[in-house]
Amino acid sequence: MSGLDVISGTSAIIGIIDVSITYYNDTRKDSKLSESFEVVIKRLPIIRDTLQKCETDLKRIQDDIPTDVWDALEEIINDCDDKARKVREIFEKVITGEHDGWKKRYSKAIRRLGEGNKVEGLLLSITQDVQLIVNHHAVQSATPEENAKLEEIIEEMKSIKPSVPEEEPGGIAFNNAGTGSQTNNVLGGVVIKRTTTLHSEFNISIPPFIVITQKQDFSYREPAGLCLGGSPYIDSRLFIGRSSELDKMHKILKPRDASREQQRLVLSGMGGLGKTQLAIAYAKKHEHEYESVFCLNASSETSLKDSFRSIAGLIFDIQEAGTLDCEDIPYQVLRWLSNAKNTQWLLIFDNYDDPRQFKIRNYYPPASRGAIIVTARGPAVLGGEEFALGLLSTIAESLEIFEIGLKERPQNLEYEKRWNVNGKRQIKLPEYQDRTLYTTWDVSYSRLEDEDSDAKQLLKMFAYFDNQKRLRDVIADHNNFAGAMRTLTDYHFVEVQEGTASWSIHNCIHDWTLMILNHDIDVQQYWYAFDCIAATTHGHNLDSLEHLPFVRIAAHAKCLVQPQLWENELIPEIMHNRLDRAFYICWRQSD
C-alpha cells in the first residue's frame, strides 16, 4: 500500500466514525439504550479527533516514510476500517426500528456479525488499532495527553458492564413426588442425585455444555526481567575481548529518559562471527538498565511467531488452552511493549539472515520507545545504525580485529586451542547444533547463487590468489567485476581497504574457500589465476621482478605454488614451463 492509500484509509475511518456519531445524535431521540452504548458514543469523538491529527501529520511526512512502513500500517488500517463499519451498522440496526425492542434488534445484529462484536468490544479493538498507528515510530503523531486518553478508553472498555446481558443457559426441569433418592442421567454420564421429601417439586438448571471460559488478560502487568531462555548458549570462558564493541553498542542503545525515539542496532557479518553472543553479552551486561529483555528467533517467520508465543506465556495471564496458538498473539505482545507504562525494554531479533522470507519491520513495536538489536548475516536495509562485525579473535596473528594487551595473551592462547580453524577437523559451534564455523559460511555462499552467480564463482576463484589487499592488482576492473565485488562485500566475504581502492579476504575465510569450496581442485580456475598473475609481468625483463612494483604480485604467485595446489596430481600434467615464471617471481622476491 502506498502512502496515499494509507492516508485515504485513515480518512475513510474518520468519515465512518463521524457518520456513526451524527446518526446516533439525530435518531436516538428518547430511546433508552444501555449504559455501554452511552459510554461508547461519548468516546468516539476522541478516536475521530486523534485520527484527524494523525492524518494531517501523515500528509506532512509522507515523503519521508519508507515503503515498508506503509506496508506495516496497511493491515492495521484495514482491520480498523472493518470494525468501524460494524459499529456504524449496529447503530443503524439498533437505534431505530419499528419492530421488537432495541435489545432484540441488538441481539440479531450481533448474531449476524458474529460473536465478539458488541459495541464495547469493537471500540476497545478500534482504540488499540489507533494506539498502534499514532505511536508508530515513523508517525509519532500522538501527544502524551492523547495517549493517556486512549489508554483510559481501553481500560474503561475492559471493565464496562456488557451492553447486552448474557443469555441465560438452557435447562432441564425435574419434577418429583415422594421420598428417597432421585437419580437423573443426563449429558451422557453426568449423574445428579437429590434426596427429596413428600410432594416436593424442584427445578435443576443444567447447561447443555459445561464450559468455564476464563477471559484472557492481555493488559500490561509487571516487567518480565531478563528472559533469554530460548537463546543459544556458549561457555562464557569462550567470550573474550569485545569490550570496545560492547561500549559502542551501549552508546547507541542506552535507554534515554523521556526519549521519543526507538533505539535500533543491526549487528551484521558472516555467520560464526559471534553476533548472537555479542548481543546476549550486551543484554546480560546491561540488564539493570532494562525492565524486560527478550531474545527472538528470527531465522523464519514461523520461528519468530513461536518466540512471540513464548513471550506471551511469560507476560500474560493466560488460562485457556489454545490461546497461545491464536494468530493475534504477536499483535498482543507488540501492544504490551507499546504500553505507555512499558518503556525500558530490549528485543533481540536473532538470525534474520534471509529478508526475502518476511519483513522484520512488521514485528517492531510501533511505540517510540525501547531498544532493538537485529543480528543479520547478509545485506538488509533494516533501519537503525549498522554495526559491521569482524571475526572473533580466534588467532591473534590472523585476525587483526582487536588490540589485545599482553596481559590478555594467555587467555587468548587458550581461546586459540579451542577454536583452531582446520578444514580436516571442523570445529562445532557450541550454541548451534550440527553446525560448524565453515557450515555457517556455506549458508551465505549458497544464497549467492540466486542473487549473483558471478559473485559466487568469483569467490571460489579467489582461493587461488593471495587474500591481502591486492585483489585489484591482477583482476580487470570492469562493471561486472565491480558489481560482483559489491555483492561479496555486502555478504562480508571480502573487505574494502579504505584509501587503497582494493579488497582483502580474511585469512579464515580464505582458508575456507580453498579447503571447502575448492576441496576438489578446479584446474581451469587455477590456470586462470596463473594467467592473470603472469600477465602482470608481460613485457618486463625478469631481472626487474625483484623491484617494488612486483612485491604485491609475489604474494599471489606464492599462492599458486603452495603444497596443497602443487602436489595435486592434476596440475603437473599441465605444461611445466607455465610454472617456471611463478617460481622465478617468488625466488627473486625472496632474495
TrEMBL record:
Q: Where is the NACHT-NTPase and P-loop NTPases N-terminal domain?
A: 11-132
Q: Signal peptide span per the entry?
A: none
* InterPro entries referenced in this protein's UniProt entry, alphabetically: NB-ARC, P-loop_NTPase, SesA
In what residue span(s) does the NB-ARC domain sit?
249-381
Citing just one GO molecular function, the answer is: ADP binding
> What is the recorded name of this protein?
NACHT-NTPase and P-loop NTPases N-terminal domain-containing protein
Q: What is the lineage of its organism?
A: Eukaryota, Fungi, Dikarya, Ascomycota, Pezizomycotina
